[in-house]
Amino acid sequence: MNLLVVMVVAWRTLMRHKTRSALTTLGIMIGVASVITMVAIGSGARAMIEKQVTSLGVNQLMIFPGSSSMGGLRGGMGSISTFDESDAKVIMAECPSVSECSPVAMYQGRVVAGNLNWPSRVVGVYPNYLTIRAWGLSEGQVFTEQDVHKVHKVCLLGQTVVDNLFPGGVSPVDAIIRIGNVPFRVIGVLERKGQTPWGSDQDDQIIAPFSTVTRRLLNITSVNIFQVSAVTVEQIYDAQAEMTALLRQRRRIAPGQEDDFTIRNQVDLLNAQTASSGVMQLLLGAIASVSLLVGGIGIMNIMLVSVTERTREIGIRMAVGARTRDILLQFIVEAIMLSLFGGAIGLALGIGATSIVRLVLQWPTLISPTAIVASLISASVTGVFFGFYPATKAAHLDPIEALRYE
Amino acid sequence: MNSSASGAAAPIVIEQLNKVYVMGEQRVHALRNVSLRVTPGEFVAVMGASGSGKSTFMNLLGCLDRPTSGRYWLEGIETSTLSRDQLARVRNHKIGFVFQGFNLLARTTALENVELPLLYAKIHGRERHRRAIAALAQVGLADRADHAPNQLSGGQQQRVAIARALVVNPSIVLADEPTGNLDSRTSIEIMSVFQQCNRTQGLTVVLVTHESDIARYAGRIVRFHDGRLVGDSRVEAPRAAVDDLAALPPPAGEEDDA
After folding, report:
1. Interchain CB contact of A149 with B (< 8 Å)
2. Hey, which end of chain B has fewer CB within 10 Å, N or C?
3. pTM for the full model?
4. Closest chain B residue to A312, measured at CA
5. pLDDT score at B9
């Protein structure tokens, strides 16, 4: 008996018992639907995190003073040796995998424009900082190396700062604002960048020349952070190694001694974030798989009942020449058909449920083709697995007993 | 091949067949040293009381079961040592079954029922259809091909079952009490179908019955008692079912059986 005929026979048998077939597949339907929905929610969350981390710039590194393993009672705040501004130029010159390097100085303070004020963060950097962050302007222009050199009091405003200090669409360019009583001229507005994965607003900041922030606002000369970009994402670990070697040399750290600085890169951060969302996705998938398993047990149940009910039919088929494998195949094909049918409907339900989650709850979702294929495959595997026992039972019936069965 | 199967075409040659069922501690000797030879084109009736071993004998003859000892050649094939699947193949190609309870697949048309053995014989689409229609025509039911068993009378159902038995061109047709569920007139009709196949096509028929009226349509009667073959006699002048039907008064209010 060829496979096509087996399929036709199985289809007819299932159609003869429409209600029972539908109820049997209900478990698989719900199982597949929940796998699709759960995985869609999981991958949606993951995709959103990836997008946020990428918005920070994936080829970026940051250098901090202090050891990454600040264990025990070592050091203390005073012992952390800061960097020198000249390190930036040396890093750019000596490390081939580094494309840009800018010192970063942070000042928290109140910003006043006219009769409005807003607490914000002022970041003092070199002009190449915007290149490193892949950050453009929506208006005006970036300050120059000259502005840094001459300690000009100019600045670029983030969108959140503009919204709070210049409401009503007034252009802030050329306006004078005061930061901690120091007047600054606004020369540009930054593009909107959105939130970081940990929820801080990247648009709530002001960017100004490094020299102006350190000398006019902070009154310091040392550097606490360097922001660096690698030439490409692939070179990020090369850049890290080159800078480590260079800084150890410049800071005269003996071999075997620990670094007194830390370099962090965005790739590691991205991996950590996606790993944690991956765990969540796995968990959701596992919960959904349990319902698929329960669905499979439902199919096995009904198939066992069906084998008993159809004992005489099996006997007739055997009498007219069905071999063990013919009967086996027929029941397995029936089980697979049931589960594929349930899988297809479950798929539709899952896509529907995912749309509801996206539209009503406003959660990010992502239905991947992989999830669709995987759930259909697991539905049919469920069919084979749970159909096998009833089919074996049917195939090994004694033809005489089966024919006599009432 | 055994010397006793010298008539190479002999459909059934049985030698010293024994069947013992073991039920717990008890051993039930269902068949004892049965030997039988059936020549091509014979019409054999098997008779005996219930428990005489005739059902066991039919199961062995139909390759549904294997003997404890002894040998059975079906058209020269020694079947007593075949595997389960090999027996299925023999049943499919060489044996046509007709049962007392018809044993048609419910909610399946007459045509599909007749096609069933051909499905397992891997005969494809059009050929399968053609042969099934021809077999139905042979039993006079070509116009009922699309009817399900529950839309057919008992006699018609049994004729569908006969068509299913004939469709594979079997070496033997085994009929187990084929008239047991039918009234006397329909029984004679069914016997006329068997007789017709036997006479016009030379089909070998082995029929189990406990009714001597029915047995008299056969050309030879063998009797079982306590698992032994106790009688084997030729019927000198078998009754012709067609003549008996003609002698009966016409059926009242029945127009479907032509």
Report:
1. no
2. C
3. 0.68
4. B103
5. 64
